Amino acid sequence: MALPALTLSLQFGDLQDAAPHRAALPRHTVARCIRHALDADAEITVRIVDAEEGQALNRDYRQRNYATNVLTFDYATEPLVMADLVLCAPVVAREAAELNKPLAEHYAHLLVHGTLHAQGWDHETSEADAEEMEARETEILAGLGQPDPYR
To answer: The domain containing residue 128 runs over which residues?
Structure first.
């Protein structure tokens, strides 16, 4: 079965130390992670931001005044998935270090996670939904040769 088509825009905001993030996110890897998580063709923008931009977006759109690892702005799911995924580089780097995992591995998990959100998956609605979403993420990541992010 062919993977869904993807039109991808990959953007890097004004980051202090962008080099490790650029190295962890080559365009082909970003596209591969997203395509494996898609159930339909998509147009997705991935933006890597600093803590200030991440906090402002989370505050303004989710009323949570802190920078979070990934924000998903979903605009349509049919017939085309249309979304923006915003990943906060300092938060992702800190989490990867705390989890003792490579930065690229943590980014892969968050790209899959955000892409599932763009298609309506939600882990905050119930424990059952959270378990279902985690299982789907683990399955997708295994198909990408990545370890279970929840172990």
So the answer is: 6-143
